[in-house]
Amino acid sequence: MDAEPDQESVARAIALRLLTGAARSRAQLAEAMARKEVPDAVAEKVLDRFTEVGLIDDEEFARMLVRTRHAERGLSRRAIAVELRRKGIDDELAAAALDEVDSDDEEIAARALVRRKLAATSTLDVQTRARRTYAALGRKGYPPGLVSRLVREELAAIDSTDETLEGLDGAVSPY
Fold this sequence. Notes:
This protein has 175 residues and is mainly alpha-helical. The chain has 3 domains: 7-52; 58-98; 103-166. It is built from 10 helices and no strands. The chain is elongated.
């Protein structure tokens, strides 16, 4: 007859398996343990120990997530905040991590995305290019006012004739 597995060993195995692939928040690990029906008291004990030895660090996890999502994926602070909340990072830690990205950094990233999207749609008409650029940056969480300004500036830089930008006045709604 098989012996009942030790719940603490099960909890440790779950946490170690998940942490091997990538950093995780404490909430993500607790959720995984709950799915495997690890008792809350056992999960808390294991999570406390992992935090104590430095295997779980929500503050560093939040900072790393902000850096990578902003630099590699070009996400806005708003979109990153939503992701942090979904991963169980409390608002105070999330705000501290998001402070690493200021509005200038966000504008630089948005401008780079606008340039890439406009270059990728160079064979299309201006209205379509603008609409697709608005949509792409909207999905990444950028505010409509910023996107509108950057699209106008970049289109003006590409084609300095006012005829090209005439149709954008109210015809294309941000998002």
